[in-house]
Amino acid sequence: APLLSTHDLSYTYRDGTQALRGVSLDFGLGAVTALIGANGAGKSTLFLNLLGLLKPSGGQVRFQGQPLGYKKSALEAYRQRVTLVVQDPDRQIFYARVADDVAFALRNLGLPDAEIQERVEGALRATGTEALRHKAVHSLSYGQKKRVALAGALALRPDVLLLDEPTAGLDPAMTEDMIDLLGQLREGGTRLIVSSHDMDFIYAVSDHVFLLGRGEVQASGAPADVFRDA
Ligand code: ADP
Ligand code: ADP
């Protein structure tokens, strides 16, 4: 079974908006899957369903072949395996200092201090933010904050990392750094799902692309194929 997949997934908001209409996606078709589509296509709604933050109106999200459980304890365990990095890092700052911020989710889990320290060190190293560890998060550049937010997610050692617009707001040099960093994560075995409007970025990082439109899958394939037909 694929690590993460959706099966005829539908989602309708309270006001009747049908944001997803029977979406079946296999996130095991590549190490890095890109989600593209115009504003309103349903990308955010899909992410929220993949994270278990919204419960499908129809169909299923499956992890390791099993339908997600929506009880609190099952979701807490699941969210260590499938983790989100939000688009705007200013919305994901938990603590003033970088090292404490990166440790936030691990402290919440009640892990032993030695393990927290080891994981935080690993996450800082992986994101090239070791030198920032004692700095105040608010003093960092936007690109540095994005790296610190990513470090916080990596510290959980998830199987799947969802990244919402990872290059939005980054200049070309920082975008190159982000591409390198995602390449390293991929080599390390983390599966990545990226939502992005940046076609050059998607071309550089992804193996498989799903094009969403009006809540449906409109194309699925290698970037070169999807972009040629789009
Ligand atoms: P995308 O992330 O691709 O821009 P969304 O998942 O945000 O797409 O939106 C899909 C559809 O659902 C759009 O028509 C949007 O207006 C609608 N939508 C999103 N959030 C809500 C909400 N909280 N209540 C009602 N409709 C919503
Ligand atoms: P949304 O409501 O879709 O999350 P935002 O209003 O948060 O959008 O951000 C709009 C755009 O500006 C996004 O591309 C976001 O990445 C970028 N952005 C947000 N904050 C900053 C910042 N401090 N510096 C540079 N770009 C930013």
From TrEMBL:
GO cellular component: ATP-binding cassette (ABC) transporter complex
Keyword Metal-binding: no
GO biological process: cobalt ion transport
Function per UniProt: Part of an ABC transporter complex. Responsible for energy coupling to the transport system.
UniProt KW Membrane keyword: yes
Gene Ontology MF terms: ATP binding; ATP hydrolysis activity; ATPase-coupled transmembrane transporter activity
Organism of derivation: Deinococcus arboris
Membrane topology: Peripheral membrane protein
Alphabetized UniProt keyword annotations: ATP-binding, Cell membrane, Membrane, Nucleotide-binding, Translocase, Transport
Name of protein: ABC transporter ATP-binding protein
Source species, domain of life: Bacteria
Residues covered by the ABC transporter domain: 4-230
Record family assignment: Belongs to the ABC transporter superfamily.
Location of the protein in the cell: Cell membrane
